[in-house]
UniProtKB/TrEMBL annotation, chains A, B:
One annotated GO molecular function: chloride channel activity
Cited Pfam families: Anoctamin (PF04547)
Single GO cellular component term: plasma membrane
Domain Anoctamin transmembrane: 195-621
Subcellular localization, as worded in the UniProt entry: Membrane
Protein name according to UniProt: Anoctamin
Length: 648, 648
């Protein structure tokens, strides 16, 4: 425990710190001893067989530990988690230690075969799968109960002994990545493969989607500009724009699935087998037998959960929706008041005042969204879902419904109750722009500024003549452990989802929305990149094969936008003028067009294959090979029975 | 070759004839010798390792062969095809020979462990997978080319040397089955498990669906009867009926998925792994390398196929659709003529004449459907699809689009162009009832009558004092080989699909349709059962896990029916009267209700899980076990490297 870090660094060149474990201050010695022993214990004895070292700083021992693993251990771990890597023949295959020689860039001394993010993911997986054997409690903490098979790390986390586990940044790599990512002003794609190597697939896929979505919006933006510049208000031009928008939004969502398949095939996650889902850390219940695994673990009755969902969560969400509508009505009162004020005292100030209610309302919407977010998290966690995926689905559903109503209810009201297209355009513009500014500020710039101030203070405290890359491990760990934790891509996707709503729901009224969206997304790429590289702790890589439920959310939004746009076009005075005799004909025509567009959308979604032909072929080839291998096995087995068969 | 059958029957009690192979008359001796040798050859030598005996009748050798297999061979074959059977602990598992003892009812001397249908399926699979080794041609037929890996049986079939392969009936079992199925008039379910054992999963699933669908229609029929009896014409009652119908049709389709999962789980096909699809027998092309398998096999350019589809098939289908609409217009002329005639000479005869055009039109529709069916088959086969599934999908799409338009175009025209609800009701009733009568006649009664006449002649020729079950194998084979071939469930599902259209598309105009559908389906069950047991050759069992594309077809129909019913209700004079001031409000309300119903439908489809919780748990358990087994394997492997790890 007394060795200094410089010694360890040189003497054990093998040990590369990958993951940091921070225990609570004052954790009992016996607990630490037991925990570190379990981590280094051999697999055969139920340990994780990893390497662990205490971090010794100038202030002495701080209950911070660095975890690493030998190269061989990491390779075996890669097999356990089912990593898919590229073979020498350019096909993607599940890595196994015995077939390691067939993989591209594999050499026994090539320690870069696994990326650092992969190594950290493997270590996280091994730590999380370190399970209690016969321990009934965590030594030293009799109130922290264990049962055979319970993940030790999860219990340590829930009982507060373990403060956090996080992967270390690689200052060298990070510098390279941030330079090529956002360091220089350039026109071009993001280094998605590098991002994936450093941050893992989930985050790389988000940035891939953000980039793709921005490019996809450009045609809409380009077509939208002349509408603003020349103040086109003709009916046929609007219809053209809206129709283009609707078909385009279907196409881009379908094409994204193909792009996503290409990316995740290259990254290997498209082929990765789903791991069996363990209960989420917060899940609690009485000990019982899990009917699926047959193991003893906490069991929570599904009926109780249903009751919580339908008797508490559902009414609460409805109440929030009602409250949101109530706030909206206040906004319309304010709007009316501003209008009256403007009429009474016609001045520059009063015309500026016209925008104030919208801006205030946009800010209030953002605040309500954020508060609701916390409430939704609390409620969903209280619903006590067993699996993380089920928790996520319930959370996303709650948040999406509320945010959709909160953001768009006023616009729907203006469009379909007040029939005020001018107000709709003004309101849409104010909401969109205000929310974009607020988001950029709250998400990236504010944390960046706070982080920068903190870093300056930290450096002052330490002897700070060094640059970032020269920091000792101890200094690096101390700096990074204070950084904020990146909570996943949820908020980022949600922002894009709402933006997609602003752009597509009322596209025929405000073609300029796409322009603002493109501009916002370009800065968003930079600020999100900055956020990932400078503001937050490095997140653990998370393999993923798609953007999951967000695909469905975006598709639903594009279906809703067909309906709203058709109604808006039908309501425009130019279209009205086309049917001077009968409003009936107008409505019937609009309804017919809407149904046709919806039918075309569904047919297009059905006809465009989700995976490009090339990827389909590669997948078919892999499937064929595995079936052949199985057949070979059966055949080999049958050969052995050959003798039996003859004499039967 | 000279041994008589009675000798073989007693001496080789082991040999049970399962499958009949009929070669063309005058097939060369050398070909027969080579083919039978390949069939009996050992697996290790590339043979099928089956048993084969020539069938000797009074007329001497007729190039008919009986194929069987030893019990052990069948068990090994069950492993090859991946059969899933029930274990002693009631779970379903993929059968392997090494784990055979763990399966329910398994005993080395229990020859009923595999059902006869399964044995025949295994033999069919083994015969189809009997592949050419180094043969370049079929011996004796230089024009019948072979290449390594080509299925011999498929080449023999396509070059006309092999006339047919069919499984033998089991007279004993068939008698039992037909007695419990349709032999006595009873109220109750069909013996689906017995049907599955005898005819395989695809056919059992069709009968399961037919039965389920009939039961599901009963509530609609019950609610529909009072509308007819009391001649209810109130607006609110129609709306209630239509709304109930729409939601009900969604519910029954969702619940069917669950029922289907329960059935196929019990039958093991839900868990059965998909086999790699070989090219369909009719597929041809120049020899090339298949990029997926790397094998040499016929390759046909995808572009050529696309050209055939878009430049020939698509215009042809459009032409047929146009022709169908043309015929429809002739029908309306006839209708007008009949009406005029009735007005001129008001008599009983003339009022009967009113129904004649509809009846003629219904008959013409049926004839056109059947002719088109042949054309579609020819065209799809000419498109030269590589896989049977792709062929089927293109065929089904072609047939569905045409049949839908052909059957319903006149009804749509009457409803939405002529606005004649009385004619719609009359037309719908005539079409529905006529098509049902024609179908029952053409599908079952006619073939049954022909078959019966033929059987009588056959029996007269043979010494015919025996009953069916006492027939010798030779007599049985000779009788069965002349029976018609059952061409799959396509036509049966299509009939149900069109019936579903008649019932749901215009349900609010003619509530009695469901009653006729129920009556038809009850007789349909009996006539289809009769057809399967008495008219056709026994078909090979075909494992399947769902009704496939038909689920989608039925769901699409139920979406279309939401639209048509909403329009119909909106058009009714009673609803009109509710909005005396503004037709606009009426149309808007109808549109709103329609969108709400569609939204409810989609949400219901999304919320109702496709598999019952119980099945989900069982599947999760199996998945967990296989993942655990994999983990164990990896762990065992890692143990071996334990030594290495320490010294690394």
């Amino acid at each position: 425990m007394g060795e200094s870090w410089s010694f360890l660094d040189t003497a054990e060149s093998n040990f590369r710190p990958l993951v940091v474990i921070e225990l609570a201050k004052g954790t009992k010695e016996e607990t630490i001893e037991w925990f570190t022993k379990r981590i280094v214990d051999k697999k055969a004895d139920g340990g994780a067989q990893l390497l662990i070292k205490p971090l010794v700083t100038e202030n002495g021992v701080e209950n911070i530990y660095l975890v690493g693993a030998s190269h061989l251990r990491l390779l075996l771990g890669a097999e356990t988690v089912g990593l898919v890597k590229e073979c020498s023949d350019n096909s993607m295959r599940t890595f196994t230690y015995s077939s390691r020689k067939t993989f591209k860039h594999f050499a026994d001394d090539n320690h870069d075969f696994l990326t650092m993010a992969e190594c950290q993911y493997i270590i996280k997986h091994e730590l999380e799968n370190l399970r209690a054997k016969n321990e009934k409690i965590i030594p030293g903490y009799p109130q922290a109960k264990l049962y055979p098979g319970k993940s030790i790390v999860r219990r340590l986390l829930t009982s507060g002994i373990l403060v956090q586990i996080f992967p270390l940044h690689d200052r060298e790599e990070l510098k390279k990545l941030s330079h090529s990512w956002y360091g220089r002003v350039k026109v071009g794609y993001q280094p998605l493969d590098d991002i994936r190597c450093y941050f893992g697939e989930t985050i790389a896929l988000y940035f891939g989607f953000l980039e793709y979505f921005t490019f996809a919006l450009i045609p809409m933006a380009v077509i939208g500009i002349p509408y603003y510049v020349f103040a086109w208000e003709d009916y046929d031009k609007y219809v053209m724009f809206a129709t283009f928008n609707l078909l385009w939004s279907t196409v881009i969502l379908e094409v994204w699935k193909r792009m996503c398949a290409i990316l995740t095939y290259r990254w290997g996650t498209l082929l990765m087998k789903r791991q069996f889902e363990e209960p989420r850390p917060g899940f609690h219940g009485v000990l019982g037998i899990n009917p699926v695994t047959g193991r003893e673990e906490p069991v929570y009755s599904s009926i109780k959960r249903q009751l919580r969902i339908y008797l508490v969560s559902l009414p609460f969400v409805c109440l929030c929706l009602y409250f949101s509508l109530y706030v909206m009505m206040i906004y319309f009162d304010l709007e009316q008041w501003a209008l009256d004020y403007h009429k009474e005292n016609e001045s520059n100030f009063s015309s500026l005042m016209l925008y104030v209610p919208s801006i205030i309302y946009a800010i209030v919407i953002e605040i309500m969204n954020r508060i609701y977010r916390y409430a939704a998290e609390f409620l969903t966690s209280w619903e006590n879902h067993r699996l993380e995926s089920s928790y996520q689905n319930h959370l996303i559903l709650k948040v999406l419904v509320f945010n959709f109503l909160n953001c768009f209810a006023s616009l729907f009201y203006i469009a379909f109750v007040l029939f005020d297209m001018k107000l709709l355009r003004q309101s849409l513009a104010t909401l969109l722009i205000t929310s974009q500014i607020l988001n950029q500020f709250a998400e990236s710039l504010l944390p960046y500024w706070l982080q920068k101030r903190y870093n300056r203070r930290m450096k002052k405290r330490m002897c700070s003549r060094k640059t970032d890359t020269d920091l000792s491990v101890a200094e690096q760990v101390n700096m990074e452990k204070e950084m904020g934790t990146y909570l996943g891509t949820f908020d980022d996707y949600l922002e894009l989802f709402l933006q997609f709503g602003y752009v597509s729901l009322f596209s025929c009224v405000y073609p300029l929305a796409a322009v603002f969206a493109v501009l916002n997304n370009i800065t968003e790429i930079y600020s999100d990149a900055l956020k990932m590289c400078r503001v937050y702790k490095r997140p653990f890589a998370e393999p993923t094969a798609s953007i999951g439920v967000w695909q469905l959310a975006f598709e639903t939004m594009s279906v809703i936008s067909v309906v709203t746009n058709c109604i808006l076009i039908g309501m425009s005075p130019e279209v009205d003028a086309l049917f001077p005799d009968s409003k009936m004909d107008l409505v019937l025509t609009v309804a017919l067009v809407e149904h046709l567009l919806l039918a075309i959308k569904f047919i297009m979604a059905f006809v465009i294959p989700d995976k490009p032909r090339e990827i389909q072929m590669k997948l078919a080839k892999l499937e064929f090979e595995s079936l052949e291998a199985l057949k070979q096995q059966v055949r080999a087995f049958q050969m052995q029975f050959h003798f039996l068969l003859i004499h039967h």
